[in-house]
Every structure is written in structure tokens, then in C-alpha cells.
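User:
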Amino acid sequence: MQASGTFTVKLEPQLPAPSIAEAGLGRMTLDKRFSGDLEAHGLGEMLAYRSAVDGSAGYVAMERVTGALHGRRGAFVLQHSGTMDRGAPALVVSVVPDSGTDELAGLAGTLAIHIDAQGGHSYTFDYSLP
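Assistant: Predicted structure:
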């Protein structure tokens, strides 16, 4: 099955632990509002690194999403892994196995994030449910 829609995201920089800051890593919280086939609220935390080479960076994040997917209510966790290799992006956002609750128990899938020329965010979520 496939779901699609838009989302807004608010990122807030957080003070990293001293050892993390010394390693050049940054930490942020994320607060997302999904609309469309996924009507939900996502909360998470991200750890990122930006290389001295322009356009090269990486991030990982965990995000708990609570709401309704095509009308089925529950929660699940998304795991993000993204890199930029001199401007070339690669991103995988997948449902953590067995993280689905209530009507979303057994949810599996991957979520693609799209950013348009004006900075608007949308998603395509390919998923399966038992």
C-alpha cells in the first residue's frame, strides 16, 4: 500500500554532551506534523555531522509517529539514515520492526521524503500491514 501527503518540521538545536561536541557532532529535536493519508504527529531526536568538504554530511534520527494511517490509529517508530556526498543525497527512512501499536501493529515499510524548490516537504510511504 502507499500513503502520501505533506508535512511540516520544526528542528531545534540541542546542547550536545561535551564529548559529542568535541567530535564535531550536532544534536537536534524534531517535531513533525503529517497531513494527507498519514494524519500524525512525529517527535524525535537527530544526531548529525557536517564535513569540512562542502556538501558532505550525515545524520541519523529516531522518530515516534502517533496518529492515523489511512484511518488506522496507532503509533510506530521511524529510523532515519541520511548522507550527502558532495551534494548528492542518499536517505533511508524505515519503520523499526515490531514498533507498530494498536491498529498499526505489524506495520512495515519505508518513507521517502521530498523537498520542492520552495522548501515544502512531502512524503511517499510504501507500507504493509498484516
